[in-house]
Each structure stands twice: as structure tokens, then as C-alpha cells.
Design goal:
This protein is of the alpha/beta class and about 260 residues long. Helix content is about 45%, strand content about 15%. It has a 7-stranded parallel sheet with strand order 3-2-1-4-5-6-7, sandwiched between helices. Strand 4, helix 4 and strand 5 form a beta-alpha-beta unit. It starts with 8 loop residues before the first strand and ends in a 10-residue tail after the last strand. The mean pLDDT is about 95.
């Protein structure tokens, strides 16, 4: 299958590193013009430089705005008023005992992980439906289904994203626009390395620490290893393609078999 996204413009939030960077790279390799987003101008510029090395002919747009705020989204819309592909990848996570999560933390997780995505969908979906083509993806997590005891607030926010995706897919019904969520499993990123070391002995070498984390905290994984960001990106690029036109309102799993179910 050859995926060609030439002529399409994509925005991937939180794409200066990690899974977002890998998704942006995959879209650029497929020919899309890709907006690289993050809050820090220096990190965004560095991500663009790195991607131009990896994908020399990439058409990239740096958009350093904090999309968790209305002002940030307004600034983004001023530079990027329309997109064909919106991938809401931005998210925060961290371990915290359930009974110690404050009201402010509950609100912060909802505002960053859920409301930021809603705000961007609300901004870009009308243009997609008017043009008769568009792709929206919300990067969720296995934690949306298997709520982790060490970060209930994170799981709550990702469960909410599944509902958001299904609801907006209904809003876009019959327009040529698809809206899906991607259930990413435990993935190897810098942030996850820090998270792993919150839960296992920080003196362990990374390979041993990863194995210990999977054994103790993610034993359901059928891969029995962390997923690489490129493996998540492969699914996102497919869902962004014309070939995925019949997939909408879905929660698509790239979880390494972590969720113990034969259906999403």
C-alpha cells in the first residue's frame, strides 16, 4: 500500500519530541505539509531541523503556541487557519497516589489532555466538513480502558478522549471527514523513561529497568516490550490516508495486545 498525502496540510500537537515527532515524520514522508507544534520556540525549531535531516524534502511549518490556552489557539489559527489532518497528540502524564490527587491536578489533566483537543477540533472541523475531506485523530492510551491505579487522573482524561472522538465523528457524519482515537500502548519515549524510573529502581540499566517495569506494571502486554514511537506513527499515517475512508468513530488499538480484549 502506498500512502500519498501530497497536497494535504497536517497539524500534530506536541510534535517537538516523542510520539508526536514520529507521527509528524511519518506524515511528512507521505508528502503532507506538516505543522510542528510545541510551546517552546527553541524546541520547535530544533525539531524542525532534525526532521529536515531525516526527511530532506519535508515541507514543515513551525508553530510554537501553547494550545492548552485560548490565546495560544487563537495565535495558532492566525498562522494556520485551516488543516486537512488534525492529530491531537499533546498530553501529560505522571504517577500519583489516587487519594493524593488534588482538585487542581484533576482540572489540569482534563484541560490539557481533553479540552485542548476539543478546542482544536471545534476550530478546524468546520473547514474540513465544508471542503468535504478531513482527518481528525485523538491520541488516547490503553489507560483509557485499563485504568492504572498509579495515575487515575490520566486514565480518566484518556477515557474522555474516546467519548470526544466518537461524539465528533457523529457530528461529522456523511461529510467525508473521519474522526478516530488511537489507543497507544506503553511506548518508549524520553518521558516514559522518566516514568518507568519512578516505579522501578533508578539504579537499573535501561534495558533491565524496562523489563522490570513491564513485568511488574504491564504484565498483560503480549509484546512484552515497550512500543516504539514509529509503530504508533504507522497507524496514524494510515488513518490520515484516503485508504482509511471507512474507519471513523473508532478506537483503534496500537497497544501491543496490552488490553485483554478481542474488541476495542
Amino acid at each position: 500500500m502506498r500512502i500519498d498525502l501530497s497536497g494535504k496540510t497536517a497539524l500534530v500537537t506536541g510534535s517537538s519530541q516523542g510520539i508526536g515527532w514520529a507521527i509528524a515524520k511519518g506524515l511528512a514522508e507521505a508528502g503532507a505539509k506538516v505543522a510542528i507544534n510545541g510551546r517552546d520556540q527553541g524546541k520547535v525549531d530544533a525539531a524542525v531541523r532534525d526532521m529536515q535531516i531525516s526527511v530532506p524534502d519535508a515541507d514543515l511549518v513551525p508553530v510554537a503556541f501553547d494550545v492548552t490556552t485560548s490565546d495560544g489557539v487563537n495565535g495558532l489559527l492566525g498562522e494556520l487557519p485551516a488543516v486537512d489532518i488534525l492529530i491531537n497528540n499533546l498530553g501529560i502524564f505522571g504517577a500519583e497516589p489516587a487519594l493524593e490527587i488534588s482538585d487542581d491536578e484533576w482540572r489540569r489533566y482534563f484541560e490539557v489532555n481533553v479540552l485542548a483537543a476539543v478546542r482544536l477540533i471545534r476550530s478546524y472541523l468546520p473547514g474540513m466538513t465544508e471542503s468535504g475531506w478531513g482527518r481528525v485523530q485523538n491520541i488516547a492510551s490503553d489507560s483509557a480502558i485499563v485504568i492504572p491505579t498509579e495515575m487515575i487522573h490520566y486514565g480518566m482524561s484518556k477515557t474522555a478522549l474516546l467519548a470526544v472522538s466518537r461524539g465528533f465523528a457523529k457530528e461529522a457524519a456523511g461529510t467525508g471527514v473521519t474522526v478516530n482515537s488511537v489507543i497507544a500502548g506503553p511506548t518508549h519515549t524520553g518521558g516514559v523513561e522518566d516514568f518507568v524510573y519512578q516505579l522501578v529502581d533508578s539504579n537499573l540499566q535501561w534495558d533491565e529497568a524496562q523489563r522490570e517495569f513491564m513485568r511488574l506494571h504491564r504484565p498483560q502486554s503480549l509484546l512484552q516490550r515497550l512500543i516504539e514511537p514509529e509503530e504508533i506513527a504507522n497507524m496514524c499515517v494510515y488513518l490520515a490516508s484516503p485508504q482509511a475512508s471507512a474507519t471513523t468513530g473508532a478506537a483503534v488499538r496500537v497497544d501491543g495486545g496490552y488490553v485483554d480484549s478481542i474488541v476495542p
